[in-house]
Each structure stands twice: as structure tokens, then as C-alpha cells.
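User: Modeling request: complex.
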Amino acid sequence: GDSVTQMEGPVTLSEEAFLTINCTYTATGYPSLFWYVQYPGEGLQLLLKATKADDKGSNKGFEATYRKETTSFHLEKGSVQVSDSAVYFCALSGGGADGLTFGKGTHLIIQP
Amino acid sequence: EPEVTQTPSHQVTQMGQEVILRCVPISNHLYFYWYRQILGQKVEFLVSFYNNEISEKSEIFDDQFSVERPDGSNFTLKIRSTKLEDSAMYFCARDFRPGQGTGEQYFGPGTRLTVT
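Assistant: Request completed. Predicted assembly structure:
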């Protein structure tokens, strides 16, 4: 079945550091890929998406590129802020009525 | 567009009791989903609901679970006889587009279920 693998956390960075959170996937067909963010005590929010190979999703300074050849969708941000502290989930979907398949999540801690 | 709303925000129940979790989506959406997240763990798909019928379900969604949309508005998840391991956050989600399943889903705030 489909699966998503993310780098283990927690990831601790200083403010203004460069962020990369790795995500790789296995899936049949051509899934859509997503990053969701969960702030403390809150639900899941869609951060960005990419629906086909070589698409780049971006939002709030975060970016991720759908790499079919490496089956990856790594999340990057050039300069993180304390407010970016949260748990980040990589996910995929085949569309239609398919549920999202999530990775285990990466807890990001940004220190001032 | 507003996200879905869920009630209650927190439900405490005793083992063996039935619980009903509610989700109030925008009425013209056709694709809905339930997920759960055990504390500190990943989000797991339970079931999808398309055009008022179950479309997909995971291994977690066994006979103790059921979903329905009894009045065309509220979308409910029922757990017939709760177990301690059912303690989790339960999220309802809708698809981004009203009549399509794009895979892009928007989540409600969740219901925290505590089974004692």
C-alpha cells in the first residue's frame, strides 16, 4: 500500500536558520502530495500542495517540489521564525474518495 | 471558504459506552472523511464518505464504527462500544472542491475523545 516516510524529530533550529524536512513516498499511480502543519493544541492546516511531477508548492515562505524520480517532496524554508514551531506532516492522496496517507510527523522547534 | 465544525470539542466516556461525534460541513460538498490521531502519533485515515455512502475505509474502521449523514447536514461517526485504545483526536475533513475528490482536504478542529 501507499506509505510516507519523514525524517524523525524533533528538529531544533535557531531563528533565521534554513530548514529542510525530508519526505519520501511510495505509491501506485501518480498521487498528489501535501504538507500539513499542526500548531500546538490545534487541528491540521494545509500548508502547501503539488499535484504532478516537477510542480512546486509554496506558502508562507515554505516550498516543496514534487520529485517523481526520487519519490520525494522535501519541505524547505530559507529563514525560520519562532512562530513556525509546530508539527509538520507530509501526506499523499490518490484523489477521489481516497483518504490521505500521512507520515509520522516532524516536530519542529525554533529557538529565538 | 469556512472549514468544517465539529462537536463536541471534548468527550469523556466510560469504556463500553457508545459515542457519537458530529461534523457540520458545507452542505454542497460530497466528499467527507474521518481521521484519528492517537496522542503523539500520526494521523490515520478511518473512512471516506461520498454522496452519502461509505466509499473507502481502512483496517481501523471495524464493525464498532459507523458513519452516516442522517439529515443531509450533520455527518456523524459512531463508536458503538468504546475501548480505552479509542482515546484519540478525531478529525472530520471535507474535500476542497464541492463536487470533486481532489485529495486536497480541509480539516475541522477535532474532537478529543477520552475513554476511561
